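Something for you to look into today, if you have time. I want to see for myself how the chain folds. Leave the record below and I will have a look.
***
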Amino acid sequence: IVTGVLGAQNLLERDNGFKRAINPQIRVLPQQADNGDKARAVEIAENVLIAHPEVRAFFTDNAIAGPGVGQALKSRRREGKVKLIAMDVTPDLLKLLKEGVADALIAQQPEKMGELAVETLVKAATGQKIPPIIDTGVTVVTRSEIAKSQH
């Protein structure tokens, strides 16, 4: 897992969700932070690929790490051999997906977030109960999903 900043609550929740969803027999290497620096994400991924040639996948929890890990996979000629699942959908990540470097992108739903934020503010302003967790959902974007949407 390549994260943006260690300890950031939103990233911790993404990473914990990822860990809960994978097979418990999969060994997850210690998480490393790129601190919002794509060059650092490249360096992290290259070091992991060298130190752990058996690595089979990366999960990146932010829009900076995904392109950095993708660049490392390309430079080490590991695209298509090592899976990349990246959070967010940006032009750089879409390009990596179309090239077969990334396998899936996890798209947040900013419109839904905005809608639910307004609804929650209205509830708070009128004294209504607000749930402790509000799930805004995500969409998994794959190459096949992109191909379907272009037809």
